[in-house]
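Journal club prep — side note

Before the paper discussion, L.F. wants everyone to see what a predicted structure for a comparable chain looks like in token form. Sequence:
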Amino acid sequence: MHVTGLRHGVVLLPETRWERTRWLWRHVEELGFDHAWTYDHLMWRALRTEPWFAAVPTLTAAATATSHIRLGTLVASPSFRHPVTFAKELMTLDDISGGRLICGVGAGGGGYDDEVTGGRPWSPGRRADRFAEFVELTDLLLRQAETSYRGKHFTAHDAYLAPGCVQQPRVPFAVAATGPRGMRLAARHADIWVTAGRPGWGVPMRYDEAVPLLTAQVAAFEDACVAGGRDPSSVARMVVAGAMIEGATDSHESYVDFCGLARETGFTDVVTHWPRPRPPYRGDVATFEAIAADVLSRGGHP
């Protein structure tokens, strides 16, 4: 992954039947986005009675409907996944996409995904432990032909992954992290570090008001890289707007301002959401398309 310049991504919620969704994935590629993502959840509590499709099959279909845009999970977590089965799916999707997959991973927010499968809420420490093992084992599985691993939460016994990833040494990881422990994990494993601003679900911040927070997060991540013996400039940095950072796509002017602030703060990638007619991520499609047509047609440099 290149870490210079500013790249643009968009999140598409997996909520419409493929007859409609096929067009949308092709459309965002034609608009010029560098990468497109979908959420890897079983469902959201607020939308649990609404249509919601699985992420990996959706991305597989998107891979066959597009030709060059990069595709990713935003983000997969240990909430309902095991590294062995997940790595097999990632290897397959990387093959089908011709090496365009990005594996976005996060610890999980302790939401409805945990409850719907009958699990009990995990403590923050246990969640962090599971996530660390999840990332470590998934990394090993994708890098080598045979893996055996025994942790507190995940085990692999003579797990073979052949023929391996198209992308070498493995599919790139986009690791979401805001706390010290998560940033240390990202510093070890991430090709892209991801933040959506303030962790959890609370009162969103306007994108320009979020700059001090994002600046502090970038500095903390760079410190984690240095402490781990890694060059911070070797890792891309992605900021996701739309949930805890708002206002970025209200107008052409706000998006240009958001991109400029993100680049100055040290980010290489910005991601927003395809507008929905109602919350969450409510917005105007015509305005969004006009922004993309202008900004992306000029190589992502507003």
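L.F.'s comment for the group: The chain has nine helices and twelve strands. Keep this in mind when we get to the figures.
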